[in-house]
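Worked example 2:
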Amino acid sequence: MLKAIIFGAPGAGKGTYASRLQAKLGVDVISMGDIFRELVKEQSELSSKVKSYMEKGSLVPDDVVVEVLKGHLAKISKGKGFQGVMKRHNYAGGPATHGSTFYRAPGSIGASSFPSRVWKNKGMPGHMGSERVSVKNLKVIDVRVDQNLLLILGAVPGAKGTYLEIRKES
């Protein structure tokens, strides 16, 4: 199930946006408050920082939010359709000259008398991409609450304009 975290200042319309996401896309929405309440239960330096802000009833600063959200992103990678073994599994292929007609083929896929079958996980042509990919250790550069932006440094999986799942690294 896809989950989304919505940032924003108090009264910025996060609740309205969350209900729209749930209605249109069936996305579970997690508030930062829920994440903070879960974090306070743990015994760590970061949880004590968050707890002090929550007890005061003040806004949690961006640098603490960034620390809480450090973790990894998960997304469905871009689909690449049906691909051959050279692109899908980095096979070398055959010679391109001297009359060879063996250019991009996979070559032999198994022995004859033993094992008389093809081994499991043998690299074969097939569908590539459209898989769930997690990218770890990306840096959260900035949280712009007024613009509802989370700036991340690094290669983020998936196509442009799609939703990302941000999870705390466990």
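The chain has five helices and nine strands. The CA atoms of residues 110 and 118 lie 5 Å apart.
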